[in-house]
Specification:
With about 550 residues, the chain is α/β, with parallel strands linked by helices. The chain has a domain of about 110 residues. The protein contains 19 helices and 22 strands. The strands form seven sheets. Strands 16-17-15-14-20-21-22 form a seven-stranded mixed β-sheet, sandwiched between helices. Helix 3 crosses helix 4. The longest helix is centred in the first third of the chain and has 23 residues. It is globular, with a radius of gyration of 23 Å. The N and C termini lie far apart (about 55 Å).
Length: about 550
């Protein structure tokens, strides 16, 4: 043990480490790994989006404060555990929620508050662009946000110098480079898989469509440059070092890998970037990424076409809502517990309640819920209205209540996945799942396996998610052998001895989920009525 401690201390001192920083929807996380890809230390910062003037957003102060807090906590953990102050790091990577809209002028001023992926305010733009490109442009995509702003004739448009994503912004803040990883870029504007750049024919069509506006830019001028996994994307500047480390111990010059979206780093974290593999990432939203053998035969509004961090085509099913409503119910149960004079850890409540769901009726006992805190594009619901419904004949007990909330967390996702597997006949050999929900053994994993009707594995790193994934991308950039692909690097080095717990679909669970989905689809009219008639409380 002492020898291991001494080795780690030496690695930290010599910068034989990689740092991954991820901006998730509810937590900013910093993870430092060694050359064997094991986590040395981590830090985090809890945050929450807010609805401001009709847009879901995070403010710049929280972005910078969260970055500093997560890094500082990680740094202090290193100092406490190994008795050494971090002054250099071998490589760094930044990951964040994909999509959204951050527009800046030439001075670096943010022109409108950050519009996150969660906004469902670009319906018209998304539809018009899908028709224009004959390629699905979801409401979340950056180009949909830009075009909707154009349709709305927003005043900031002539001043735009660059638009980027959250990961691109953080990377720019720390390195001065306006670049983006190809996986994140594929949620900004469609990618040409042969050139690994923005699709030029679609660029031309977009410019032609807006030329009457006479903006002082064409769209290619304001999009960040694309880099592929393994390339160096810039180095930490003096200003960047002082931003990330308030104690000013960290030295500039550290190389950064391309900034990536949470979809791509989730694929890396689960070693699912080869063809016919996939992963499911669970958090406030949920998405499944399936690496394709062949292109899809049609355009589907429920399915995004994106790429891996190395540029391979991927079918992505993204649902805006997943665990938020489940978290709210767990919070309510905790509040009750505390009102009874008891104290309990939230993780323990999760574990108890999720295990309870495994004793439920296969279909959830006739109960129905929608955890829509925001609009849901897959089901066509524009406003978030969390809803729980039952009939007098429903079997209303705690096990069924929890199973229903787990089912509905993956309900919209299943609709999209059914298109891939039942209509497009896409073959999926295996799925790897990651996210905090899978820290509790079996329950969430069984539900996902039932939803997709394929084997689902969870690795020991399931709870670390994209922060660990982007640390791996940073390590790949620094340590890869000449011409070594990301797929080979992951297979032969990162995951060679990794252990994963695999579960095969249970027939009763699959049948129960299908029965629940009939109720889910039929009940969407109820959810739509709630969105229309339940008025938001204005404080």
């Amino acid at each position: 043990m002492e020898k291991n401690q001494a080795h780690i201390k030496e690695w930290i001192a010599n910068g034989e480490t990689s740092l991954g920083i991820e901006f998730g929807s509810t937590r900013i996380k910093a993870i430092l790994i060694d050359n064997s890809f094991h986590t040395i230390a981590s830090g985090s910062f809890e945050w929450e989006n807010e609805l401001e003037n009709g847009f879901w957003t995070y403010n710049l102060v929280d972005i910078v404060t969260g970055l500093q807090t997560a890094y500082s906590e990680m740094k202090q953990n290193v100092e406490r555990e190994y008795g050494i102050t971090i002054r250099t790091i071998g490589s760094v990577g930044v990951s964040a929620m994909m999509h959204g809209y951050m527009a800046f002028d030439k001075t670096g001023e943010l022109l409108v508050p950050f519009r996150t992926w969660r906004n469902a305010s670009t319906t018209t733009a998304a539809k018009e662009l899908t028709d224009l490109f004959q390629f699905n442009i979801p409401e979340r995509w950056s180009i949909a946000h830009l075009y909707q702003a154009i349709l709305n004739e927003e005043k900031h448009l002539p001043r735009i110098d660059v638009i980027t994503t959250l990961s691109g912004f953080i990377h720019w803040l720390l390195t001065g480079e306006k670049v983006i990883g190809i996986g994140d870029a594929s949620g900004v504007f469609p990618i040409d898989k042969s050139t690994k750049d923005y699709n030029q024919s679609m660029i031309k069509r977009f410019n032609k469509t807006i030329e009457s506006k006479q903006y002082p830019w064409e769209v290619e001028d304001i999009l960040p440059n694309i880099l592929v996994g393994g390339e160096e994307a810039g180095r930490l500047t003096q200003v960047g070092a002082e931003i990330i480390d308030r104690s000013k111990n960290l030295q500039p010059g550290i190389p950064f890998c391309p900034p990536e979206g949470d979809a791509g780093t989730g694929m890396v974290a689960t070693n699912s970037i080869r063809k016919r593999t996939g992963n499911v990432s669970v958090g406030t939203s949920v998405f499944a990424m399936i690496v394709l053998d062949n292109e899809l035969t049609d355009v589907y509004p429920e399915i995004d076409m994106v790429t891996t961090p190395s540029g391979s085509p991927v079918a992505m099913v993204h649902a805006n809502n997943c665990s938020s409503d489940l978290n709210a119910w767990i919070g309510l149960f905790r509040e009750f517990y505390e009102a009874m004079g008891q104290t309990v850890d939230t993780d323990q409540i999760f574990e108890v309640m999720l295990k309870k769901s495994m004793k439920a009726d296969p279909d959830g006992g006739g109960l129905l819920s929608y955890g829509y805190l925001s609009g849901e594009n897959i089901t066509g619901i524009e406003k978030g209205r969390p809803l729980f419904v039952r009939s007098p004949e429903s079997n209303f007990n705690l096990a069924n209540f929890m199973r229903t909330h787990l089912f509905t967390a993956f309900g919209a996702l299943k609709i999209g996945m059914d298109i891939l597997t039942k209509e497009e006949k896409v073959t999926i050999d295996s799925i790897l799942a990651h996210g905090g929900l899978f820290k509790t053994p079996l329950a969430g994993q069984k539900i996902v396996s039932a939803a997709m009707n394929v084997p689902v594995s969870v690795m020991d790193t399931a709870g670390d998610g994209g922060a660990w994934g982007v640390a791996i991308l940073a390590s790949y950039m620094r340590n890869r052998e000449r011409n070594e692909s990301l797929e080979d690097f992951l297979d032969t080095k990162v995951f060679e001895s990794a252990s994963a717990k695999e579960i095969y679909p249970d027939g009763l669970d699959v049948e129960g989920f299908e029965k629940f989905m009939e109720r889910y689809k039929e009940g969407l009219a109820i959810e739509g009525a709630a969105a229309e008639h339940f008025i938001e409380q204005i404080n």
